[in-house]
Target: Metal-dependent hydrolase
Amino acid sequence: MDSVTQAALGAAVSGVIAGRRCSPKVLLAGALLGTLPDLDVVIDYGDPVANTVNHRGFSHSLFVLPPLGVAIAALWWRLSDKTWPLWQLMVLVVSVLVTHPLLDAMTAYGTQLFWPLDKPPVAVASIFIIDPLYTLPLLIGVLAALVWRTNAARLCVVGLIASTLYLLSSVYQLEQIKARVAQQTQGTELAGKPMFITPTPFNTVLWRIVVRGEQTYWEGLASRLDKTPEIDWMAFEQQGWPLAESESLTALRFFARDFLRYENRGGQQVVTDLRLGMANYRPFQFLLAEQSDQGEWRPVPPRQLEPGPVLPRTIPALWRRLLGDQSIDALLCNQKDCYPNEEQQAKVRSSS
Model:
């Protein structure tokens, strides 16, 4: 999640655990601790791919943060006037640090909760990386605690409960969409294929679905406000990788769980993480190989490409789609590729 949300969560958690000891200093300390795991962004791992896949790595590990929290609490207690019980400081610091990656794991980006074990990043993908409806209760509770200090802990409790209920509701919405997608793909060529579902920006009403095939992948949108259960699918050509698999590509495949698109863009081989972004905006696309004048491919140092523009038509179309307008062309297509693989698209419709 974004830094504001993580700071608000850290402050709220610290206020709840502090109880009658809750104060502006405690809330500030909680906010700072809540953003501490994200300081890994200052580490340069050597190239854009490595920086992307290693973010939310060791600094978000459930094997690292608890002992780190105990050490920070012990140092804090040692340097303080020892008016706090050591156990309470330890619970506060560890809780603030651990809730950070647990919340991050609810997004599509994923979090390496079990680093250094060779486990894929955990990505529940039930909430967008920025969601005001999750953040606002936390912020309101913390700000109210700063004003009405006699009830500070209770106000933090209220904010934390409200935000947690919203987070739980996002998981419920995700499960409902999963059931709908399973029903709609039953008996079609999409049935049984790897699938990724995630909310569109700033809400848990409109959801984006990606289905991965060997030579084709499909995208669809489903809103909780749709009047009919049918999902319109757009089929996109999936090109292959022309070289032996590089270290960067292996890392991206692990990070994205193979939800990647391979494209030859005029002699440049671009690999895009399909889980993140939509329409023309793809924030994680990397140039990994180039073609010589003789037609031979060679790997190049990874370079992250511009994510692409957000077209003016996209935002109002997104809002209409959220409200139940089941036309998705304006959202999923770009000017060069507006009706890709019409034959495949017709095949899915005729099978359903």
In short: The two ends are 37 Å apart (CA to CA).
